[in-house]
Amino acid sequence: MFGTVPRPNWIEIDLDNLQNNIRYVRDLLPAGTKMLLPVKADAYGHGSLASSFAAIEAGVDFLGVAHLFEGIALREHGVNARILILGPCMESDFPFLQKYNLTPSISSYEIAKKCPAGTKIHIKIDTGMHRFGIKYDNFEEVKKICELSNVEAEGLYSHLATADMPEHSAMEIQLTRFDRMVKELENARLRPPICHIANSAATLRFAERTHYDMVRPGLALYGYEFSVKPVLRLCATVRALREVEAGEGVSYGHFFVTQKNMRVATIAIGYGDGYLRGKPNEGVIFIRGKACPILGRVCMDACMVDASDVPDVQLGDRAECINGEFSPKISVEAFAATHNTISYEITTRMARRLYRVYKYKGAMMGWHELKEAWKIV
Ligand SMILES: *Cc1c(COP(=O)(O)O)cnc(C)c1O
Fold it and tell me: What residue's CA is closest to ligand 1, atom 6?
């Protein structure tokens, strides 16, 4: 289907949507506000290289990765944009930070003073997430870092624990703590030029108070939860068709037993692809615009659906598994809710073996064509 080897299943990554989402959010921001796109965990499962190149083209200022090696991988493929490592920095990272021009997050004076000369850093403040960062009221430690001559304190940031829970009071407390830190540094004329705290929820729902100099929306730019356009679609193909008589069990454990004669379609998608196994008989897959209920257990490489209502179903038909064009029933959000989890976990679990196709400037293309388009090494 794409490239030379026929594929049983694939993810469509709509880079046009990613770029439109970036422009949409940018237009909501006060002029001059910078944007960081988190591309950690392979860009939430969307492919970090393609997402990074698309994001840079759409005007994103920074990319965010969790770990040093994720930043190095981007550099080795020619990504030149600023990259902030969001995870804690260790001394063993130093030579690589320099070699690959990566910007560390710094959580103590001890490590800041050992940074190689000329390192640009972002100071991480713990305002209430309690994951890492300097305690919100430790003004002295932060000031000491800002005064160091070996580092340039370019950024100061924190992360919100409850921005997606508007009724929760913790965000208010975190914002107040962060603001006190910023003011304290302002008064000492040490305020780093790029202060930032907003994730997706804060960027879109609590604009005025959270934007500062840069925002860091991930989920919203990938198109979930915030009524922007989803970037990822999981598709597969019909690999087998059979008529099954009434009274027969289907799939492992026979958790589904036919009550009537049924046309069963076997779809090449399973938990080995990141299509969660969950409970038996839960969820639907769309074939030719029709919702086909999953029968029994999802297997590792396949699952069976009831295609009785799709009279013209054919071997090789496209099956839409997550984010189909036909129904919100299989949106990432709905699929996550069915499986008692969050959208982030669904997209980050997309398996490596899934082939990726990209939509870019209205055309579908494989990785090789995309590489040509962007001269990716
Ligand atoms: C992942 C991450 C974000 C993005 O969060 P979303 O909820 O996807 O918007 C922002 N900041 C930090 C530090 C992160 O690790």
Answer: 218
